[in-house]
Amino acid sequence: MDKTFEYRIYPSAGQEALLQKTFGCCRWVYNKVLAARRDEYARTGKSRHINSYITQIPAWKKTDAPWLSEVDSMALQQSLRDLDRAYRNFFRAPGKTGFPKFRSKRAGRKSYRTNRVEIIDARHVKLPKLGIVRARVSRPIEGRVLSATVKQVPSGKYYVTICCTDIPAVDAPTPTVEFLGIDAGIRDIATCSTGERLPNPRNLQRSERKLAREQRRLSRKQKGSANRAKQRVKVARAYEKVANRRKDALHKFTTHAVGESQNIAVEDLNVKGMQRNRRLAKAVGDAAMSELARQLEYKCAWSGRGFVRVDRFYPSSKTCSACGYVHRGLTLAERAWDCPACGMHHDRDLNAAVNIAREGKRILEGTAGHAGTAADAANACGKGVRPAQPPVGGRSSMKQESPGFSRGECQGTQTEESSMADTIIDFEDAKIRAHDHIVRGTAADGQLRAFAITGRETVQAASDHHHTSNVVTAALGRLMMAAQMIGAMSKVDDELVTLSVRGDGPVGGLTVTANNRGQVKGFANHPNVWLPLREDGHLDVGRSLAPGTLSVVHDIPGMDPYSSTVGLVTGEIGDDLTYYFAVSEQIPTTLGVGVLVDTDFSVRQAGGFLIQAMPGCYDYVLEDLESNMRGVKSVTDMLESGMGPSDMLDHLLRGMDYQELSVMPAEFHCGCDRSSAARCVMALGEHEMRDMIAKGEPADVHCHFCGANYIFAPEELEEMLG
What we know:
- By secondary structure, this protein is α+β, with helices and mostly antiparallel strands.
- It has 4 domains: 3-165, no CATH class; 177-366, Nucleotidyltransferase, domain 5 (2-Layer Sandwich); 369-411 and 432-668, Hsp33 domain, CATH 3.55.30; 674-721, HSP33 redox switch-like (CBS domain Like, Alpha-Beta Complex).
- 38% of the residues lie in helices and 24% in strands.
- It is built from 22 helices and 30 strands.
- It has a 7-stranded antiparallel sheet. It has a 6-stranded antiparallel sheet with strand order 15-25-26-19-18-27, with helices on both faces. Strands 24-23-20-21-22-28 form a 6-stranded mixed sheet, covered by helices on one side.
- A hairpin with a 5-residue loop joins strand 16 (377-378) and strand 17.
- Helix 1 crosses helix 4 (73-92) and helix 21 (686-695) packs antiparallel against helix 22.
- The chain starts with a strand and ends with a helix.
């Protein structure tokens, strides 16, 4: 689990000056690279990877900007990574996210990120370049520190926010409510299906006179004067006080609601649309409806509670919670009404909360999550690639032919011997194809190599080991099958391929390891994450992970591991790995993976494909492949129609002389045992083991990949020491 810890810091005059200089240097490199990338794209239509600019920072320190050496170097690098993230967000959703803007030194909020921070004691923290800074450490940090953000808010106060991971799960209290529905509103910020309410304190309305007075005083100050700067701080502190009161009330309510409830449902309100109403905009903003839902969502994830958003068009207020009658004529002004069908008297908000709870329970327990591959990633050819939609009536996944025999008529007329061979059942081959397996083939006279996998049993085994939610099952399953296909490429028996996703989403990260024998293992940092479905009814795998990074590590015995890292494009795994091959390996590749989770949270279908160009591949071959991929949909659709891995490759590589070369089994396999766990215990050292023996404490070794626990009693520890 990930958490952030925020502490106020009190820098000295010299430290404050250095902080302001760091803010300015981060702004300078951000604007410099933004201008360079914009000009480069205008000239060439391309943009270099952000790492090529990060490597130029040492040269700038020697030439253009020697003052960059005075500040934290990590802050400068993180500033450019923030720019790169802004670029990716724009190209990911150009209609929703604006193009990155130049930063102004007159911005009200200033910040920078670093990765080196240390809590000295309850009153001091240590930051790079600043040294030891006075602080108010209200509570100790937990887990492992990932990064730290130092910021100055408009009121002039300084804070450090420390992001930590690997935090143990919260021991949430035993819930008293199975399913809680919450109706957000203006009169009452929240109305619960249990009858509890959070009245709106109307913090902004209560402070409007004071805010107006301070704003008038600011308007009368001379621009550029010290008095105007002081008054601007007073205005900022007045607004800060209003925001703090609102935040305090919401935190108290949401913490209580999550602690008392096993599952929570809220209405997915269009708050931005509501704020376009000039009569309601101020009241809607003061009620903080979006912040209420946001806090409930991440606190449910922390505590392992269920969370669901009910569609905004669901008539929660107009539906009678007793008989189901829909009162179409109910107006917004009517705060109470009697059901014409059954006569039940309803409080509008309480009735809506009860209906939201009921609808949320139906969604969470009765909807199948469909997780196919995402669309529109760019391959190395610069063209969009989508997973395939099969024709109806594909062949069965059970093949009664030996691997290596030609398929179709692409090899010309078959001889009598080969025809006889096709009628012979290879029982070993049939046994392999009856379960999860990987098919390897080639096309276009060896210019393309192809792999396809079916992995329902493998993904189900991983889900059973780690007790994953539906969205985590889909994410972990996709990554495992991709690792199996990449591992199948290797010709070195002991080579291991590790795929690691580190994201800012609620799942936190995924790690999987595969060999070239079809065996894979993996785990998720947070296996019990529940997210509402996307608008298309699919599991929101991208939101559960992105933004973040994808790392691919090849570990060959006797050689240093080879590692490469790229940013997540969508978080949908297939698109991200296609991007990895294009950017890092510079190999034209199309990859699709999909997992279909049924209504009972079992794995209904799982599979994928990987098609890759070999060195010297002609452009017309890539164009034919792109033509075959154009217009196709998802891997799970192909599997649902009865296709197996061989059928998928037949379909995707149609007209390209596809030949199947081999088939191998695929499975979830950890390989840990008591002897390997004993070696881990021995790695603790004799001193630590002697201490455990003296205290009578056993050694407990937990395997992240399969969830197995190996316990060594003090007597066994004594035997191990000899």
